[in-house]
Input
Amino acid sequence: MTSDFDYIVIGGGSSGCALAARLSEDPAVTVALLEAGGDGTDFVIRTPLAGLAMIPTRLNNWAFESVPQPALNGRRIYQPRGRSLGGSSILNAMVYMRGHRSDYDRWAALGNTGWSFDDVLPYFKRSEDNESLHDEYHGRGGPLSVAHSRTGNPFHAIWLEAAKEAGLPINVDFNGAEQEGLGVYQVTQRNGERWSAARAYIHPIMGHRANLSVRTHTRVRRIVLEGQRATGVEIMQDGEPRLLRARREIILSAGAMQSPQLLMLSGIGDARMLSSIGIKPVHDLPGVGRNLHDHPDFIFGVRVPSTDLLGFSPAGIARLVSESGRYRRERRGMVTTNFAECGGFLRALPDSPAPEFQLHFVVGIVEDHARKLHAHHGLSCHVCLLRPRSRGTVELASPNPDDAPRIDPGYFNDPGDLEQMVLGYKLTRRVLDAPSLSRLYTRDLFTAHVKTDDDIRAILRERVDTVYHPAGTCAMGIDEMAVVDPQLRVRGLEGLRVADASILPTPIGGNTNAPCIMIGEKAADLIRNARH
Ligand SMILES: Cc1cc2nc3c(=O)[nH]c(=O)nc-3n(C[C@H](O)[C@H](O)[C@H](O)COP(=O)(O)OP(=O)(O)OC[C@H]3O[C@@H](n4cnc5c(N)ncnc54)[C@H](O)[C@@H]3O)c2cc1C
Output
């Protein structure tokens, strides 16, 4: 088997799949895509409802845990991450979202030339094959299929009615000119099946493109440097360490937890911290693993006796059996659910440049990442803070590459985030208390006792969790804490870039899969342009 390539991409997730596919479009270069998990083709992954059922499990999932969070009553926060070609896009909620124009303009204002909204929009469009929205904001014919929900759930209309009753605008395209408002989400699906980044970019070319070598079940243990240049990666094969060499560049796309971990395992990071854990520092880069940001999220839950909502009752199970038949025949109905079928963006302060909160309206009761199941039917509504000021860290727990990193998201480290979430709680309550919805409830599961602002603060500390958007741990920028420059090159080294969620310098207002795919697309152009 060849062990020399022009480019080695580490991690076949949302960014890595897009990057490896685009880089290997040039037949003059050879590309290796190395993925620790499997090939991401299983039926479980393709079928939306089954794929979501992996979130609480270890199936195709790294299933990390954070360290105890002091501002969340000492709770450890579960951190699922996809482990397969497709990365986290194999178990995510398939919501297609790009974030707000002002998020990218902020990146550019921080010195990240080339990353304003107008700069990145062409990459979102290039990646996209939107089934139904065709205007200057959307792409057609790209690898990533984007479609309207095929569940036909009557709760979509109820959600929209509640929005109107609450005096909130309706939005039919959250990725168009205006983000604010409530509506039904578009999803990364085609014909009712999950459209992971692997399905979009890699499966169609795997085994057919001679210059692309896709190696699954291949976990990288460290990056090898010769002087200041990255020249290869160490993998384990048949129980023995083996070196794969990169003639031109290595690109790290192992995600927000594992890209910084791999840099640190390779001696790249805060020199003092590395020495303290027994790793010989090779390149002092204090920002590695800092700046971890995530959207803190609270979930309301209510019982509603309707089999249009998921629930583990006899009637619910009978409904699922009949829905499975429908799915086989039509690829429509409940089995195509992405759980978070509706939602939207709300502004608490009229003069904020962008909505501060995102809602995910879920057609079932979600508690503890679906690790706690409910026999009753019901619905949930998430509210998350889109631009938290709190920052956390990813560090090495040990020098052993097989150990999970030490993850400290630092939720509510900045007390202002808790106060913002109080506003978000109240805004969401306004929608949930609208007559079209509230007349259906038989029981408020988590917040019946919450009356005062202090009650709200207490319930937030008790129940706030992740909405799965950790990012920022190899931040792009131009200051001394930046890990990569605006070309995504690791500062001070040659032949090494990072391209995935870890480069986000500041949070974006929305879900992170489409942005990571955009990063992979853009990274391919940056690398190609550097060669010519
Ligand atoms: C449960 C859940 C729900 C979500 N819902 C949504 C949603 O609805 N919409 C949305 O837009 N976003 C959602 N997200 C977030 C989004 O999916 C992620 O932000 C995005 O997929 C991250 O992309 P990435 O390329 O940074 O990393 P990933 O996609 O996580 O890819 C990293 C890859 O690297 C591999 N890897 C790691 N270490 C190594 C190593 N040492 N060697 C080789 N390979 C390695 C991993 O196995 C993985 O395949 C969700 C995420 C989760 C977990």
